[in-house]
Design brief:
This protein is of the alpha/beta class. The chain folds into two domains: 12-189, inorganic pyrophosphatase (n-terminal core), CATH 3.90.1640.10; 199-311, Roll (Diaminopimelate Epimerase, Chain A, domain 1), CATH 3.10.310.20. It is built from eleven helices and eleven strands. It has helices spanning 21-34, 46-54, 121-131, 138-151, 162-175, 180-192, 199-205, 227-231, 234-245, 271-281, 298-311; strands at 12-17, 37-41, 61-62, 70-74, 90-96, 112-115, 207-212, 215-224, 251-258, 263-268, 290-292. The strands form two sheets. Strands 3-2-1-4-5-6 form a six-stranded parallel sheet. Strand 1 (12-17), helix 1 (21-34) and strand 2 (37-41) form a beta-alpha-beta unit. Helix 1 (21-34) packs antiparallel against helix 4, helix 2 crosses helix 6 (180-192) and helix 3 (121-131) packs antiparallel against helix 4 (138-151). The longest helix is centred in the N-terminal third of the chain and has 14 residues, at 21-34. The chain is globular and about 55 Å long. The termini are far apart. It binds manganese (II) ion. Manganese (II) ion is lined by residues 22, 75, 97, 120-121, 151. Manganese (II) ion binds next to loops. It catalyses: diphosphate + H2O = 2 phosphate + H(+). Keywords: Hydrolase, Manganese, Metal-binding. InterPro entries: DDH_dom (IPR001667), DHH_sf (IPR038763), DHHA2 (IPR004097), DHHA2_dom_sf (IPR038222). Its EC number is 3.6.1.1. It comes from Flammeovirga aprica JL-4.
């Protein structure tokens, strides 16, 4: 029997910038398990708001100054996904399910790292509850279920594992969610209501920086059941991307993800960006952008070809 993982009570459990449901709920559930404070690095999106409200769980506090603080990183492993001050933090652990690429959180000494090939960071956190024999409350089961359903789009994305499915079923039972599919649909509806956001806000809702060598790119994604309403703002979104590009970016990309068809159209800020997309995906630009059938995941479908392009 190994010694159980523990963290000091002042530890901050930190999800990535432009928080999504998985990172927010991972931070909440992990802080609840180990003791400590869940942190978000930005405004919650409408889906996360819906999940927290549904299970009557408090929003995490906002923080982006991590200098000198004890930090447990959840749902990311690259400095580009966190505030700049994170490099001055005392990182205790990284618990994540993303590829290890450039800009990893390198540390001076050995730390605890747990990276698994599951589709949601909440799946990993739920496993720690089981491992440590800690009873999961209905509230914590609800938020972790929310994280899993969010990252897997209701357990439908191809990289969903049997472990994610198993854990989701167990959590749903504890949380009192009888119909997982119906609940996932409610989450998607909440996520798709982007009426209160400007084009620039939509661009930044689910937006990540990636650095390949000395090249920085931005990649935003919008997954929606009502993607036509977002595409109606195409000119404004393109203008916002061009504005963003001035901040030291080689390229800015954005994916319109249609959750009714599971097809995506990836757009660029300008002709140079479209040339990159055409090369990376081997597909000519159409009226709107580069159309990708059956591809919806930034982590699995969009970033690998773009990364291969810049690293070649
Ligand atoms: Mn995640």
């Amino acid at each position: 029997m190994s010694v159980q993982l523990s963290f000091p009570s002042n530890a901050l459990f930190v999800g990535h910038k432009n928080p999504d449901t998985d990172c927010t709920c991972s931070a909440i559930a992990a802080a609840n398990l180990w003791g400590g404070t869940p942190i978000v690095q930005g405004e919650l999106n409408p889906e996360t708001e819906f999940v927290l409200k549904h299970f009557n769980v408090e929003k995490p506090a906002f923080e982006d100054n991590f200098a000198g603080k004890d930090v447990v990183i959840v749902d990311h492993n690259q400095t580009t996904q966190s505030a700049a001050s994170v490099v001055e933090a005392n990182i205790l652990s990284i618990i994540d399910h993303h590829a290890v690429q450039d800009n990893f959180f390198f540390q001076k000494g050995p730390i605890h790292i747990d990276m698994r090939t599951v589709a949601s960071c909440c799946t990993i956190i739920a496993d720690y509850y089981a491992d440590m024999n800690v009873e999961i409350t209905a509230q914590m089961a609800g938020v972790m279920l929310g994280g899993i359903l969010s990252d897997t789009l209701g357990l439908t994305v191809p990289h969903t594992t049997d472990i994610d499915r198993e854990v989701a079923a167990k959590l749903a039972k504890i949380a009192g969610v009888e119909d997982i599919e119906a609940f996932a649909q409610e989450m998607l509806i909440a996520k798709s209501d982007l009426s209160k956001y400007t084009a620039a806000e939509i661009l930044n809702l689910d937006y990540k920086d990636f650095i390949f060598g000395d090249i920085k790119i931005g990649f935003g994604v919008c997954e929606s059941l009502l993607i036509d309403k977002v595409i109606a703002k195409h000119d404004e979104i393109t203008a916002a991307m061009q504005e963003n590009k001035k901040n030291g970016y080689e390229a800015i990309f954005f994916a319109y993800v249609d959750l009714t068809t599971n097809n995506s159209v990836v757009i660029g800020a300008d002709d140079a960006d479209y040339a990159v997309l055409e090369k990376a995906f081997g597909i000519a630009k159409g009226d709107l952008g580069v159309s990708l059938e059956g591809k919806i995941s930034r982590k699995n479908d969009f970033i690998p070809p773009v990364s291969a392009h810049y690293n070649s």
